[in-house]
Amino acid sequence: MFHCQVYVISFLLLIIMNVNSVTSFNKTQSKDIHLEAPHLSDKIRSNRPRLKPLANVNRSRTTPTIVTNQNVFNPCNGTYIKTNGTTCGLKEIMIGRCHDYQYVKHSLFLTNQSIKNCTKLYEVFESAVRYKSYCNMNMSTYERYFDLALDGVHVINRAMFWSGTYAITHTYSGNGRNYVTLEDTLAAAMVDGLIWCGKENDTEGFDFVSCPYTCKSNQWADLAFWGLASKTFAQLAVGEIYVVLNGSQAHGKSAFRNNSFFSSFELPNLRRNGTYRVTKVNTLVLHSPDEIAVEKCGEKSLLDLEKLVRSHGFDYACKDDPEELILIMCSDKWEARECQIAREVLRQTWNIKLYGKSNSNRNSLSLIVFSCLFFIQYYSLKIISG
User: Fold this and answer.
1) Treating both helix axes as pointing N-terminal to C-terminal, what angle do 21-29 and 2-19 enclose, rounded to 10 degrees?
2) Active-site residue identified among 126, 206, 262, 266
3) What is the pLDDT of residues 233-249, one digit of tens each?
């Protein structure tokens, strides 16, 4: 009887060891190395303004008066410090980004894109905003800039739109290598993350102290750049496009909203006819690890989106959490419950690749062998005892 008790206790101990085998094996393999969980992007938010219901506003323009002898304080003063106004070194940054974009990063990723004159591009941009009040801006302010920057560009089967998924969408797009977002185009890449606003009656023509983020007298001013950017990008899309939405919005917010940039500027401006037309809208709905799935394909606002897309004459498809994007989401939510389980399975598979078999398999085999020995000994004692 004593022998049976010993075997039972040993059997239970081995089960406990087997349950923790994968974790302990991984720790012994990398006990001297600690890695932090990766993050999707250094910049997790766009600087596009939030959309608000547009009211009847005064859109009249005033003629700026330039005063050249006024001594105005410029906090930049030849440096690149951060202020609440126009980004210091705006000209140098934009021209530098333009050259980097064309000659290093993106020269091969967009179809039929000719080399642009970076200095001329900046001058066109500057002429649209310098010496002009922020509240005098509207959707036509930057038309010449976008026409020049994006002339001849078509994004074929790789245009990717987003709403509430900035970081993961841009990680997945690979900065234009896999898919192309608005921010991957030259016109937007030159200014993404920067701040600027003109100033009347000023020698610099830019306000380097403080830029308004809203204009109560003209809400179109807030959309002057990014509203037109979204509209223009939609007009460049050809073939199948992709829309990445957040199905786990905080406070139960809808994945698709009627006042989003996609609804207001992008979907209405997708080309329906001609050689360079859009044929299909593919919606990818993401649900963040450890967060509630508020909406799935074919539900609530996503059903409204499908009806709206089809009413525009486009084919429609929707997929919840594609595997490629699950891996990216888990890279940012390293310790989430779902991701920990996935990591364990991935680790076992990788151990098979590295060592021919996983540690859990070795322990499972030892468990089977021990179980056989236990039952042989148990029945042997039972036969002997009669």
Assistant:
1) 60
2) 266
3) 999 999 999 999 999 98
